[in-house]
Amino acid sequence: MSSEGRNIVYIGPEKHIVTQAVENRLPEAGLNVISLLPDIDKINRQRDSADIFLCYADYSSPKTEAVMHYLSDLCSDEHRSMCLIVDNAAAREQVMKMKSAQRAAHIYTRPLNLNDIVDDLTELSKAYEEFRRTKTLLVVDDDEDFFMIMKQWLKKDYNIVGVSSGIEAVRYLKNNTQPDFAGLRNARSRWLRCNAIASRDAADLRNSDYFSYRRRRS
């Protein structure tokens, strides 16, 4: 997990015109650039510094392919984003033949439009900040044991609030900041269910390990 949502790890050669452009323009937009040489050991030491990796894919360098494969695996395994910079259309076509390039969120071709890069990376950074934010889950159930189970399951990832009835839930919603999710149990059918409301992350909740199934209560 990244410690700073606005950190960008840039991977490229020192004192290159692309490196200088990135290091000068991105901080002006509030993005903190961590510059690294295309070396897997150096990248690995900074792997937790950011959610976004911007790599200058210099196909003439023998290290480029190995670095891209490493970044592709890292981004796939840890839900990070990789963006690439290439020299020209021919280099872009060559890079796109590499399986690792399929993980790239954006590919930029020189000459660069730095404003487009800033806009894309800022949007990605905001998305990761929202993703990392601790969400609030409102659980509606009059079974205290059930609530404690839910809280134990989810406390590492969510701020859990419990109420014992629909009336209390409505009162909570009127008097507090609306939660990201609300879950209720359908006691009549004796099924465990969860309905997501007022959340851009509804699909995330429905697809989570906790709510992607139904189970009968004993």
Structural summary, described in words:
This protein is α/β, with parallel strands linked by helices. It has helices spanning 17-28, 40-45, 64-78, 89-96, 114-132, 144-154, 166-175, 202-206, and strands spanning 7-11, 32-36, 52-56, 81-86, 104-109, 135-140, 158-163, 181-184. The protein has a five-stranded parallel beta sheet, sandwiched between helices. A three-stranded parallel beta sheet has the order 7-6-8.
Strand element count: 8
Radius of gyration: 22 Å
CATH superfamily of the largest domain: Response regulator
Order of helices and strands: EHEHEHEHEHEHEHEH
Major β-sheet profile: 5 strands, parallel
When the domains are counted, the total is: 2
Spatially, the strands of the biggest sheet line up as 2-1-3-4-5
Under CATH at level 1, the class of the largest domain stands as Alpha Beta
Which class best fits the helix and strand makeup? Answer: alpha/beta
Topology of helices and strands:
Blueprint lengths: L6 E5 L5 H12 L3 E5 L3 H6 L6 E5 L7 H15 L2 E6 L2 H8 L7 E6 L4 H19 L2 E6 L3 H11 L3 E6 L2 H10 L5 E4 L17 H5 L12
Parallel strand pairs: 1-2, 1-3, 3-4, 4-5, 6-7, 6-8
Which tags fit this structure?
about 220 residues; alpha/beta; Rossmann fold; five-stranded parallel sheet; three-stranded parallel sheet; about 40% helix
